[in-house]
Structure formats: structure tokens, C-alpha cells
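Protocol step 4 of 6.
Sequence for 3'(2'),5'-bisphosphate nucleotidase (Eutreptiella gymnastica) entered exactly as in the expression construct, tag removed. Do not edit the line below.
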Amino acid sequence: WTARSAPPEEAQRLSPTDTTGISMAGEVSKYAYPSQTLAHDLSCSSKPYARELAAAVHAVQLSAVASRLVAPSVSSASNKIQKADLSPVTVADFAVQAIVLRHIREVFHEDLICAEETSADLQTNAVLLERVVEAVRAVHPEATPEEVCEWIDYGDFRGHKERYWTLDPVDGTKGFLRGQQYAICLALLVDGEVVVGVEGCPNLAPTEDSYPDASHATTPGALFYAAKAQGAYSYPMPPPDSPAYQQLPRCAPIRLKLPEVFAEGADVRFCESVEAAHSSHTDAAKVAEKLGITQGPLRMDSQAKYCCMARGDAQILLRLPGGLTGGDYRENIWDQASGSLILSEAGGAVCDQSGRALDFSAGYKLFNNRGVVAA
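Step 5 output, C-alpha cells:
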């Protein structure tokens, strides 16, 4: 990372209001300042969606603080529940959603949001609600249980509008529970297209060299972001209680640009889900054999896979929940929106398993697509 130190007078000038256009006076925690540096720079741009990108980056960085603070205790039974589809949901899922959606609605009052979680389970589980509120207070010390539930439910939109946001607060919850990869995934959709995508990957080290031992408490994570026709970038995310976080220098974001010449055969690596239930490992192996790929797959949870591909760690992603025949499963938009934009802006390509572009205009699921293929 190339660092450029902020002059003392600039550090004093930057305030919560500067980065977002709103004031959080009276409830800014000790974790607020470092996340403002990048957001402030982005908000000063005259490019399209600069304000939206800045707000999204700020929200994701702040919520990543809460996710990392609760990570050591999240495997406790009182810190998680199981949803009707048998997927786990944790304190971090709820806390991250509350923090992100509060911030987006503060900045963009009229915008609707389609997010994964609701507060319904919290309102019947006092112990879990208490844990969630405690996590949110790491960022917003004055938050009440009623406010936290309200913020979570800002994400109850399930229709389709010309403009709305989508959020997966902890994409890859099983990875999060294992202390491995997960991502906080936020995107803005306008006229059925993803125009802003931000992913916070607290356990994904800034360079491939330290993967997969990236979940150690002192290891920095990485933030990835993109805006339509403006390229994709990465930025470091130190752990919240580390000296690096408290003294975060002004770092120049790294532009992600894939080579124009595609790798072949032995130089190609697959990227796929850890869980075989999420994508057929058998069918992926068949494709790899056909293509002459000899390297073992890079397996990880969440849309962090898109980010790894955007920086060149792997060259092909297959997500085939129904195998090569497709099946009836349809992806939720929050599981693909931010990552697909980041990879596309880095020079990659994303489509479904029939070669059609992902269609985000049909509602909260990709009803017009089966599976996902990226390269």
C-alpha cells in the first residue's frame, strides 16, 4: 500500500458531517474517524454517483467494525439463530444491517432498500436483541433497541423501483462463523443496473500472499468498491482495535485492472463456494477437466470470490446451485449485485450459465437467470 499522510490541519477539518452531508454529533464512537478518510475523498469527486459511493463506503467500513468486534464470541448459541431455510443468522448480520441502513437512510431519505434480514426474530428473542444492540453501540453509542429494530427494517423493500439499494449484511455467514471469509455487500441499482458496489471483506488480507490465514485478529482486511464506468478499487481495512486502525494513514486506493490476455490451462484457477450445496463441485471439476485446468480450486464463502478474481487471485467462478442443468434456484440480488459490478469494472465478465447478462430488473431475485459464471 502506498500511504500519504494527511496534514494535521486536514485531519482536524474532517468531521462526520464532511463525509456524508449529515451530522452524527453526540454519537460518534472512537471508530468513526478512520472510515472518513476515504469517504471524504470520494465525496469530493464530480463523477456520477460520487455521493452515493462515499456514503456506501463509509457505511460498510463502520459496520465492519461491529462485525469484527463480535466475531470472537459469535459461535455462542445465544449469538445466533437458524432461519426457516436452515441458514444461520448471527448478531453480526443484524448489527451490520442496522448500521449500514441507518447511514444510507440518513443520507438518502427517500431511497428504498432491499436487505436480507428483518427484526422479527429479534423482537421475540430478548437475549439476542441485547447482543445486537451492544454491537451497534460500538459505532452508535446511544442506539436503543427500538431504533436498532427500526433501522434493520429499513430494508424491507421487495418490489422494484427505478432506484434502490440492496444489502447482504454478512454474505457467507458460515464462513464468518468459521472465522474465515465473509463480506458486507452493498449496492445501488438504477433502472435495473448496478451502478455502485461496495464490499467490505474484514478477513480477506490485502494481498494474496497471506490468504487463507487472513482471519487472525491483527491481520488487516480489505475494502473493494466500484462505480459504473469508473473502475474498481481496493483499500485496506485494519482491525478496529489495532494501532493501524487508530492511526490509519491516508492510503491511495489500488486500481484493480485485469490483464487483457486471458490465462489458459495450467495458469487458470477456479474460484467456488466452500459449501457444495451452494454450487456443484462435481460439475465444476468436469468443466475444469475439459479446460485443462490442473490447479485446485480456490474455495471460499461469500462474494469475496468476486474481489479475489478482480485482483487476479483466480480466473473463473462457477456458481451452479442446480448443477449444469440449471434447476429451479434463483439467486437473490444481494448475493450478486456488488460483486458482479466490482469484477466487471476490473475488466472481468459476469453472466448466467446460458451466457445471458444478469438481469437485476425483475425484483429481489434474478428471476430471469440460472446460475452465475464469471471470468
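Step 6, annotate. The two ends are 26 Å apart (CA to CA).
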